[in-house]
Specification:
The chain has about 450 residues and is of the alpha/beta class. Helices cover about 35% and strands about 15% of the residues. The protein has helices at about 5-15, 45-50, 70-80, 95-100, 115-125, 140-155, 165-175, 195-200, 210-215, 225-235, 255-265, 335-345, 350-360, 370-380, 390-410, and strands at about 35-40, 60-65, 85-90, 105-110, 130, 155-160, 185-190, 240-250, 280-290, 295-300, 305-315, 320, 325-330, 415. An eight-stranded mixed beta sheet has the order 13-12-11-7-10-9-8-14. The protein has a six-stranded parallel beta sheet with strand order 3-2-1-4-5-6, with helices on both faces. The chain starts with a helix and ends in a 29-residue tail after the last strand. The protein binds nicotinamide-adenine-dinucleotide (NAD). Nicotinamide-adenine-dinucleotide (NAD) binds near residues 41 and 65.
């Protein structure tokens, strides 16, 4: 970015605005049957189609991907369970035809990042609720567009942060609600996932889109998997808010060399040589209004075991998920496996009690993906607020562009926008107790 472009990012981050309508806690009219259209049927999209195919009260009516073999495969899959979807493919703008339909309630977007906000905004403008893959927005400008559109149209814009539904994260949230940690002081999150092979694969991501992201931008490009659950534990946007952040990135010691190595054997990789790749390790620290701190890391190119860290540290106890197994402590020693089990049994979250076993059988990252989709559909069918609203989508995604600014400016701090326009002070926390709903059945 040029200095002028960075100045614009700063201006967007400084934007203050009055909320037009509060989408936090918003309950849309209930839908007996949720009529769904999907855009993007790659690795992630096909999995989402499979999962929604197994939920009662879902009608899969439309399937879109650039590639006709993808729409054909998804159609075949759901036709076997009685759905009769129309397919849209082979043209980059054909997704608009799907979003313009008047007989859909929900558009589920699982395309590369650059399309998330344009597709979500267009779908809401055309009267649809939206589920959009992570991150929902690439820029602060896009994050504001999502907020403005959702408030104006009163359509849900949920960024499907599936890690909020992982079993250990849900247990930690339930423990936090029950006062186990005391006052929360500090949280640590990450997306550390060695994707070297995937990003350079000719087939894994459509047209190597994720590799291209890695030389077009700098900073913490994928913050939400680790951050989402920590924000829920800290009631961010619902009692606390992020104030400012600072970010630092290492240089790239891996991706540029890999590109060179591959290009020496295969001309296909020549265009990827000599690019200014994002640093391998990005570390962001965030201060909240209540005085808490959050650390978020991002590294998808070093040879390290997978980790989202998930450290929650409070005045009475600490929890840490990675490296697994997850553990808790109230003093100098970690609890034994037996003590962990007892804690888990006592504080098993209601959603896990109800759907945990089914979700594990259906699968999708061990079951969390199914828990998320089931809960979202159940909320829509019962006219309940969704667990993640447009302010969460905007805020969690905004860490990427804000960290980019800080990295480019010698790790200076930058304010985090208040996407809730001040309503964070009174917004209700996520309903972990599931006091309402839970009526939707799984078709397994
Ligand atoms: N939540 C998770 O755990 C998780 C895991 C993996 C990926 N993701 C996210 O899911 C999204 C998709 O990732 P993926 O791995 O499935 O990528 P992918 O490349 O396998 O799939 C993307 C699909 O979008 C299609 N597409 C591209 N442009 C399109 C257009 N204009 N119209 C219609 N279709 C278009 C491509 O043909 C492709 O099939 C990304 O945002 C990624 O970050 C999330």
């Amino acid at each position: 970015n040029t200095p002028e472009e960075w100045a614009q990012v700063r201006e967007q981050a400084d934007r203050k605005r009055a909320q037009k309508f509060n989408m936090s806690g918003y309950a849309a009219p209930k839908l007996d049957v949720v009529r769904v259209g999907f855009i993007g049927l790659g690795n992630r999209g096909m999995g989402a189609v499979e999962r929604l195919n197994k939920i009662e009260g879902v009608e899969i009516k439309a399937l879109c991907d650039l590639r006709s073999e993808k729409t054909a495969a998804a159609k075949k899959l759901v036709e076997a369970s009685g759905h009769r979807p129309q397919t849209y493919d082979s043209s980059p703008e054909i997704w608009k035809k799907l979003a313009e339909r008047t007989d859909l309630d929900l558009v589920y977007i699982l395309t590369p990042w650059a399309f998330h906000t344009p597709m979500a905004v267009f779908s809401m403008e055309h009267g649809k609720h939206v589920c959009v893959e992570v991150p929902a927005a690439k820029t602060i400008e896009e994050a504001w567009q999502l907020v403005d559109t959702s408030e104006r149209t009163r359509k849900h814009c949920m960024m499907v942060e599936n890690c909020c539904y992982d079993f250990s994260e849900l247990l930690t949230l339930n423990l936090a609600r029950n006062g186990f940690f005391g006052e929360i002081i500090h949280g640590e999150a990450a997306y550390i996932h060695n994707l070297q092979t995937h990003v350079f694969s000719k087939t894994h991501f459509y047209q190597l889109w994720e590799l291209q992201e890695m030389f077009q931008r700098k900073g913490n490009l994928y913050p939400t998997h680790g951050l989402g659950p920590i924000c829920q534990v800290m009631d961010i946007n619902r009692g606390d808010k992020m104030e400012y952040l600072t970010s630092m990135s290492s240089s790239d010691f891996v991706l540029g060399s890999l590109a060179k190595e591959l290009a020496a054997k295969d001309d296909f990789y020549k265009p990827y040589v000599g690019k200014s790749y994002n640093g391998n390790m990005s570390t962001t620290t965030i201060k909240t209004q209540k005085g808490r701190t959050i650390m978020v890391q991002y590294d998808v190119s070093s040879p390290r075991p997978y980790s989202r860290i998930q450290l929650v540290s409070g005045t009475k106890a600490v929890g840490l998920k990675y490296p697994e197994p997850a553990r808790y402590s109230t003093g100098h020693e970690w609890m034994s496996a037996e003590e962990y089990k007892a804690l888990e049994e006592k504080y098993l979250p209601p959603i896990v009690k109800k759907m945990g076993e089914v979700a594990k059988n259906v699968g999708g990252h061990g079951g969390m993906d199914f828990l998320m989709d089931w809960r979202t559909i159940d909320c829509l069918r019962n006219g309940l607020p969704l667990d993640q609203d447009v302010y969460d989508a905007a805020l969690w995604s905004s860490i990427a562009p804000l960290s980019g600014w800080s990295v480019a400016n010698r790790s200076n701090s930058i304010d985090v926008p208040d996407f809730t326009g001040g309503s964070w002070k009174a917004n209700a926390p996520v309903d972990i107790s599931m006091t309402k709903g839970g009526t939707t059945k799984a078709k397994v």
